[in-house]
Each structure stands twice: as structure tokens, then as C-alpha cells.
Amino acid sequence: MDKSDNRYSAYINILHEELMPAMGCTEPIAIAYAGAMARKILGQLPERVLVEASDNIIKNVKSVVVPNTGNLKGIEAAAVAGIVAGDADKVLEVISQVSDDNKVAIADYMKTKEVKVKPANSDVIFDLTVHVFKNDDCASVQISHYHTNIVKITKNGETTLYNHHCDDLNTKHKTDRTIMSVKDIVDFADSVDLSLIKDALKRQIQYNTAIASEGIKGNWGANVGSVLLKTWGENDIKVRAKAFAAAGSDARMSGCELPVMIVSGSGNQGLATSVPVIEYAKELKADEDTMLRALLVSNLVTIHQKTSIGRLSAFCGAVSAGVGAGAGITYLYGGKYKEIAHTIVNALAIVSGIVCDGAKPSCAGKIASAVEAGILGYHMYKNGQQFYGGDGIVVKGVENTIKNIGRLGSVGMRETDKEIIRMMLGE
User: What per-residue confidence (pLDDT) applies to 376?
Assistant: First the structure.
């Protein structure tokens, strides 16, 4: 791809917008970010807090530990952590540096102050507002569509910021993702000047490998990664690729205080997209540039799939990431557009039915399954086997199949999403 091509700069911008560090599950961290910002606007520690959150945020916050809180869970804990101990300037690392005294203060605030949660009166899937009150003063911060997108700030009834495009889903990102295609992604990965994106990719390797290793060593969640290694052994690269990605998820779902480089707004997707590719690169003794280009493929294929699905859905994001990893692994084996396209279609045909029932330890198991499908998708095509158009929701052409998956995740599973939320809330 020529540097003068508009798509060249667009892909670089997309990567810089998507690859960012976060500590903890990104939905509670987004609440903590809004809480820290609300306190900053109020100018003092509030005595009362109200959080309004859309159903999908409630779903994703319900069962995960908020890091640096002493193993607290839930929306209230996330908001209070940001308000009491957060640094809004750190964005999704807002509660990455919390002293022991502040951990005590978070617990005390939860016991002694009024912190309420109610469903957001909004049709936006990702929507939250943190309101804070002290005497006659009040402030609020609203985040919509994605985790760092502050669309409205008010203080004492006056709006100090309002994003007029906050209800327009097509303007929620700085760079248009609809231009993406698998063919262009491979062309871009082959030709891009790596110096333009190398720092972010190397940080992805550093952060995501570190938390994956901690997930294997420690006792986190359901220990899916450790179970995989103990059951099938460490000598098989397919097992290691699944195990380390799953282990990273288990650690972060259970409050591990290590950062992750996220993709499509998700640390789990960031792990599933990158860790298997990193493990395969080590196994194949790929040079650094080849590994980085393979990571470009895996990241961008994941982002491409998620564009039409959206940030939150009943469609499990680990599927998109596992498929992306399969594409990156195919690239490491020397595969180009044809091989990568067939890998994607094969993998999607296998695991596109996995649902998202919130962030929690079982995400690690879903990551392992999705990565397995990505790897199988490649080996199927390598052995002359594939799924064809007309096999279920698979249609001729990788872009058409991705389009169908987007429709499934964003439209077809809408009622499924509502029913999952009702089940989780005991309704």
C-alpha cells in the first residue's frame, strides 16, 4: 500500500486510537474514569453519588473485581474507586496507583456514603453518567458509545461540555472504520513503515505477555490457562497459545493490578488478539519485524470484525479476537490474503454462536475456544478443507461473511442480549 493512499494513514490512526493501555475490565474502569472526572469538576470529595448505566454496562461490571479496591466488585465500587483515589488524567489507568490508605478510604466511603445505581434512560448500548453531590454543589460526567468518549459535563446545572454528535454512531470514532477490508489489511501489514506504530505494538507485547505470565503463575479466577497446560502439556504450541491468552483474562477479571493493551475497547480482546500470535512467533522463531506485522494483521482483523458489531453486544468479542489471532498466525506461517481470508471464514463458521453474558472468569474459557477456532481455521485450509458459501451464515467472500457476522451481532442478537441481561439480574 502506497504511503500516499488515504487508507495508509487511516490504518495507522485506527491502530493508535484502538491500542491503548487499561488496568482492569474496561467497563468498570470507564465508570471509575467518569467518577474521577466528576470529582475533578466538583472540586471536592462528594457526599453522595448516583450512577446511571445502560444494561450492557451493568452486565459487564456485575461479576468482575475492580483492581486496587481490596477485591470489591460492582458499579458502586468502580465509581467510588475513581472518586476517592482516581487520577482522571490517566484515563483507563485511572486507578492504577492507589495507596493502601486510599484502599481503606474506598471501603469506608462505601460503608458511610450514599452510592446509588439506576438504569440509564437511554437507547445507547454503551452509556453511563456519574453524578456527584456535596451540599449545594453538583457535577456530572457522561460517557457514551465507547470507554473514553466523554460527551457531556455539567456543574451546578450548567453544561460545560456537550458533544453534539454523541447520538450519531457514525461519528463516535475519529477515523472511519468502514473503509477496512481483509485484503487492504494484509497489503498494509506487508508495506507499512513499522516505526510509525512500533512503540504501541511493543507495548502490547510487553503488557499482555506480562499479565498472561502472571495468570499462569498465580491463582486467578478459574485458572483456565493452568488447567490447559496441566491437561495437555506445555510442549504443544496450540495449547500454549490458548493457555496464555486465557490466563491473562483470568488475571484481569479477578482484579490483577497489571495493565493490558486493549483492542476494540476490551482487554480480553486485546489478549486474545495478541498473545497467541506472540507465542507462535516465539515458536516459529520469527524475527521482530515479522511478528509485528503479524500483530498488525491480528489487531486490524479484530477491529474490522467489531466495527459493525459494536463495542457491546450479545456476540462474544473473544470470537472476533480469536479469529483475528488465527489470521495473524496464518501470516506468521507465510499466508497472504487468500490463506488469511479462508482462515477467517473457517473460524467464524465454527464459533460465531458464543454469547456474551458479561465479564467474568468464564471469559477465559471462551477465549481459549475462540483461539482454538482461529488456529483450526488455518490448519483446515492448509489441509485443503474449508467451509463454503451456503453453509449456515457463511456466504461467498470473506467480506460478505464478516458482514453477516456484524448483522448477527448487532441486529440478530439484540433480543438475546436483553434476555441475557434479564437472567443475570434475576428478573
Answer: 97
